[in-house]
Amino acid sequence: MPSHYALLLIDIINDFEFEHGDALLSYTLPAAKQIKKLKQTCKEHNIPVIYVNDNYGQWQSDFRHLVAHCQNKEVRGQTIAKLLTPDKDDFFILKPKFSGFFSTPLEILLQHLGVDHLIITGVAGNMCVLFTANDAYMRNYQIHVPKDCVASNDKMANDSALDYMQQVLKAKIDPSEHLIAEISKRGSR
């Protein structure tokens, strides 16, 4: 059976206007630059890109409103929101809690796309990325969490989460350049 990938960007469209937001932002900016390169490679090889985002308690909002808020307001996360602007053919899922699977249609979308390998990127590595990876593992997905494409507001917490994902969830945590090379070598899905 061929491997079909999808790239998940967890909570990357984010205003970072919360306690410890500056700390998280300082680690996220370098990760966002790597995510952009990975996203570009995925797009070149027809790998679907899925933004999985919190609604941040704005229950009457939608994803486009969230993108506009982060790009057009003077918020901490503006640079990242502009760097990783969703394309028209990208998918998006709004999530109410930490995991991208909890009370969302993500699993149905992945089944529709025929995905069996998830590339999970974003923030925070020790929270939403970890919970999404855990739920992906429970659903038998092969998991890739490029260690340079996730960030937490504390390096030690991020490293600990990556170690957990590698040891327990069997995630591959090689840097994104390894995954980019693998995708490029493998060709289109």
- Calculate Rg over CA atoms: 15 Å
User: Low-confidence stretches at least 5 residues in length (pLDDT < 50)?
Assistant: none
Structural class: alpha/beta
Q: Would you report the number of β strands?
A: 6
**Biggest sheet record:** 6 strands, parallel
Q: What would you call the shape?
A: globular
**Integer average pLDDT:** 93
Terminal-residue CA separation = 12 Å
Pattern of helices and strands = EHEHHEHEHEEHH
State the helicity in percent bands: 40-55%
Count of individual helical segments? 7
Strand coverage percent:
15-25%
Describe what you observe in this structure.
The chain is of the alpha/beta class. Helices cover 46% and strands 15% of the residues. The chain has helices spanning 21-44, 63-72, 78-83, 106-113, 125-138, 155-167, 176-186; strands at residues 5-10, 49-54, 91-95, 117-123, 142-144, 150-151. Strands 1, 2, 3, 4, 5 and 6 form a 6-stranded parallel beta sheet that branches. Strand 4 (117-123), helix 5 and strand 5 form a beta-alpha-beta unit. The chain is globular. The chain starts with a strand and ends with a helix.
Would you kindly provide a brief summary of this structure?
By secondary structure, the protein is an alpha/beta fold.
Keyphrases for this structure?
single chain, 15% strand, 46% helix, alpha/beta, 189 residues
